[in-house]
Amino acid sequence: MTQVNLDDSQVVKNTHNGEIVLKSITAFPDQCLQAWSEASMLKFPAEYKQVKNILVCGMGGSRFTPIIIKELFKEEIDLPYVINDNYTLPKFVSSETLVILSSYSGTTEEVIYCGQEAQKMGAKITGLCLGGPLAEFFKSHRLPAYIFDAKHNPSGQPRIGVGYMTAGHMGLLYASSFLKISPQKVDQALNKLPQLLVNFHQSIPTIQNPAKHMAQNLFGKYPYYVTAEHLQGIGNAMGNQTNETAKAISSYRYIPELNHHLMEGLKFPEVLKQIGIFVFFTSSLYDRRIQVRFDITREVVEKNGLQTLEYKLQGQNKIEQALELIGFSSFMTMYLSLLYQQDPSVVPWVDYFKKRLKELSK
Known about the structure:
- The protein has 2 domains: about 20-180, Rossmann fold (3-Layer(aba) Sandwich), CATH 3.40.50; about 205-340, Glucose-6-phosphate isomerase like protein, domain 1 (Rossmann fold, 3-Layer(aba) Sandwich), CATH 3.40.50.
- It is α/β, with parallel strands linked by helices.
- The strands form 2 sheets. A 5-stranded parallel β-sheet has the order 2-1-3-4-5, with helices on both faces.
- It is about 45% helix and about 15% strand.
- It contains 14 helices and 9 strands.
- Keywords: Isomerase.
- It holds the Pfam family bact-PGI_C.
C-alpha cells in the first residue's frame, strides 16, 4: 500500500464516506448530550422499580455499550446486571426481571426474539433503539423505551453512533432508579468531553495527535488492547471498532484476568514477535494493585520480544475517562481505516452473513 499522510485533509475527502464518518465521530459529545438528556427523563411504571435483577440483550455495537456501563458503574448499579448475547434467555428471567432490549437499528434478530421470549416469561421490558421492528414492539405493547432520533450520526453505523447507546443506557438506568449517580456529575463530564477529545481531531497534526500516532503504530500489526476496572468494557468496544471500521484484526484483554494465563502464551507462534503489539490504557484512578500489575505485565510482554504502547487517560474522574477513551477509540480506528485505505462506513462481510442467514433460514 502507498503511504498515507493522515495530516492531509484530502485523504478523508478522497475516502468513500470518509467525511460523513468523521463528522459522526466528531459529534460524539453531541450524541451523548442528546441521549443523556432525553433518556434520563423517561418515566417508568412503579412496578418496574420493584425488580430484583437486570438482563440486557444486545449484539455487536449494541452489546459493547451496556458492557461499558456495567463496568463503569459497577459500584453504582445496585442490582445484578447481566449481558445476554444470544437467542436463549437465562432461566432466572421472571416478573422480577427488568429486560433491556438494546439494538441501535431496531432490527437485530437475536434481540427481537429475546424480547418476545421475555414477554412470555412475564418480565418487565424496556430498551432503546433508532426504530425498526423493535420500536414497533415497544409501541404496540406500550412499553417504556428510548427511541431516539440519531441526528448526530449521519454515518448510520451503530459503532459510530456510540454516544446514543452509551449515554442512552446510562440515562435509562438512571430514569429507572437503578443507577445511583448525581446527574450533575454526568452533566459536568459531558460538558468537558469536547475538551478531552480536541487533540484527536483531524486538524491536529500527527506529532501532537495521540489518536493518529497510535493508528500509525498499529498499522500492519495485531493489537491487544489492555484495560482494567472502570475502563474494562471499552476494550471490547475498541476491538469491535477496529474490526468493523478499519477492517483489521484485534483482541482485547483486561487486568488482572490476563495475568493468570495470557503471559504464558507469548512465545509462539514466532510471527507474533513481528505483528503482535500490546496497547496499555493506564489510569491514575486504577486501584494501586492494578497499577502495579500494569507495570509488571508490560515488563513481561517486552521480555518476550513484543512491542508495547501506552495511552494515559487524562480525565479527572471515571466518567470523564470512559468517555475520553470511547472517543479516542472512534478517532483512532477511523485513522487506521485511512491507513489501510478502507471505507470506514461499510461492513460488507457482516452484511453478507446476514443475507446468507436470511436465505438459509427460509
